């Protein structure tokens, strides 16, 4: 089991045709109950894609869990081609 990670960073891995203005490398950090975008806007639709699994990633999970092996999620609007990566900053 991996230790809990209350701090999770959501990074834009790919952005083929986003209409919301996000770019590859844009990120939001979830630290416990708070969100930080570093003062930059972050697409709420993209954030909605990761909200269901954030709680799972902030708790202990097995090292072979799919969220550790393949930490990628897609934005709900498939036409934009936005892929997000969840990472646990040290």
UniProtKB/TrEMBL annotation:
NCBIfam families: TIGR04076 family protein. This is Putative repeat protein (TIGR04076 family). It comes from Paractinoplanes brasiliensis. The lineage of its organism: Bacteria, Bacillati, Actinomycetota, Actinomycetes, Micromonosporales.
């Amino acid at each position: 089991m991996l230790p809990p990670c209350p701090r999770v960073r959501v990074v834009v891995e790919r952005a083929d045709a986003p209409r919301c203005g996000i770019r590859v490398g844009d990120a939001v950090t979830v630290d416990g109950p708070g969100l930080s975008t570093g003062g930059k806007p972050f697409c709420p639709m993209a954030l909605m894609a990761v909200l269901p699994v954030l709680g799972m990633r902030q708790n202990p999970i097995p090292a072979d869990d799919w969220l550790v092996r393949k930490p990628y999620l897609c934005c709900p609007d498939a036409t934009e081609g936005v892929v997000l990566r969840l990472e646990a900053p040290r």
